[in-house]
Structure prediction request, 85 residues.
Amino acid sequence: MTNSEAFSIMREAIIVVLKIGGPILLLSMVIGVFISIIQAATQIHEQTITFVPKVLIIVAVCLICGPWMLETLQDFLYEIFKLMI
Prediction:
């Protein structure tokens, strides 16, 4: 394996990680900012108010996008194994 092949695999791995983790992180950040604005407006600063909605959103995203995430990861691993053989 040459350096360019290794660099290509690392670049593809980073893209796959961003594809898989992106939706979860993005929605978690949006919910966190929305709840922080509500907390600042109402002056209620309870940690569980931010934690529970984030967990629920993350579970929902995993249930909805889980098959797509698994398929993306499987495709990447098939490509890696093809290069190794």
Remarks:
- The chain is about 90% helix and 0% strand.
- Residues 3-84 form one domain.
- Residues 20 and 68 are 9 Å apart (CA to CA).
